[in-house]
Amino acid sequence: MSSLYSINYHLRAHKRDTFIEFIKSLLLTPFVLNTRPGADDDFADPAASADSLMDADAPAAGAVSPSVARYLEVLGCIEDLIQDHILHSDNGSRATSYSVLMEARPDSGVPELSRLSSLVPSIGRFFTSLPLRTAFLEQNAARSIAGRRSVPPSFNDIRHILNFAQIRAIAPTLKLITFDGDMTLYADGADFARDSQLVQLLLSLLRARIHVAIVTAAGYGSDPTRYEGRLSGLLEGFRVSDLDNDSLSQFYVLGGNYLFRYDPRTHHLVYIPEETYQTESVRRWSTATSRIKKILDVAESHLTKRAREMHLTHRITILRKDRAVGVYCKPGEKLTREQLDELALSTQQRIHHMQHLQLHENLQRSGLLPTEVASGASTPILGKRLSVTAVTGAAAAPVELPIPFCAFNGGSDVWVDIGNKLIGVGMLQEMLGCAGRETLHVGDQFLSTGNDIATRRACCTTWITSPEETAQVLTQLTDLLRKRPAVDGPDRRPLGAGK
Ligand SMILES: [Mg+2]
Fold this sequence. Notes:
Blueprint: H1 2-12, H2 18-34, H3 50-55, H4 66-89, H5 99-103, H6 115-119, H7 132-143, H8 155-170, E1 176-179, H9 197-207, E2 211-216, H10 225-230, H11 232-240, H12 245-248, E3 251-255, E4 258-263, E5 268-272, H13 280-286, H14 289-309, E6 316-320, E7 324-329, H15 337-365, H16 371-374, H17 385-393, E8 405-409, E9 413-418, H18 421-432, E10 439-443, E11 460-463, H19 467-482
Parallel strand pairs: 1-2, 1-10, 2-3, 10-11
Antiparallel strand pairs: 3-4, 4-5, 6-7, 7-9, 8-9
Protein name: IMP-specific 5'-nucleotidase 1
GO molecular function: hydrolase activity
EC number: 3.1.3.99
């Protein structure tokens, strides 16, 4: 039974988000309590207005109906678990409001010891606390979550609650917002429309002196022409806007490994050479051309083999680029999500396997691998990042670590890119001096076959599913920015402040 469970779990893991599934399971309890026989009176709302409740940091249980109060109690518990996880995660190297508490905690910097880690072992990092109760009241007003008796809280209900909680939490400190391109700012493969409501919303962010960057997997080299074509509607909005040059200069495009900045004098994107911002650790692997070629060779050969085994060869084209290899459909053809996921997941596994074997050999050659591991007598340390870092850190000469890559389902195609969005967002953070709690990434691909998920290790994230949802999120965010006090000099100002 256990092996069957394990197989089922792994077969479905790429379609699930473990934290959302965890919250979903907890919210089934209030749903069942609210639907028990005789619960009719629980749905009557008390006199308190939804607006006044939402403005409160922690809505009082007595101010809402019993049906809502049950959900709030569970969400309050999750807020506490997140806060505890933050305290366990932080190593105290940054000055935060929790520094005093952390100094007193011997387990700071060990997130594995948090209560949330024991409940959701794959849980990642949180850069801010999340006001889930306030976000629930907001979403409940729009989605009737507590008032439903036949349909329990869904994946999408919880995704929206998390998104709006994150927006509320980050608004006071936001300095950098990064966006995925396809399905986040425009439809898959489409251009940024001139009449898109997102043009004005992005201008509002720039007006508040927030750095805005589009971080997209679409790589067209160092020539900005193709990006300018795809972003023509947005760039036209910039050109006719009344925004000052300093604000407009805070717009960037990072396409693949190529960074561009908007020049308000010429109204064009200007390429920024990577030598000017690339860190030493990134340069070390990004210039290793023979290793990169080997990864792409393996990816191309694996994709060709899997396509043949799935009888897809006549329906697809495989395209090799400098730092990527992709599979896309021939005209008139379309692959199912399952076919695309299969190509992406199996290629991920193939490259991970190859790189881990290489690392194992390197460590053995350097004499850094403990005998029992090198002989296969115990579980290999490969794949356990901390152990590898600790071992390689002791080496006299640098040991070649695996090269970051991303094999993902792009919605209608599959790509294997060298580097990933974690590297891209991290590089922008480094260049612009923005910490994780000051950075928000907005994207649509947060499952394990997606290319936005890697950013969760660097910053706060918001998981949307369409440009319309991006607009909803930004409308709320710009409202909150309007209320942000004018602090920190010229780099931050509330919306509506003069030039
Ligand atoms: Mg996308």
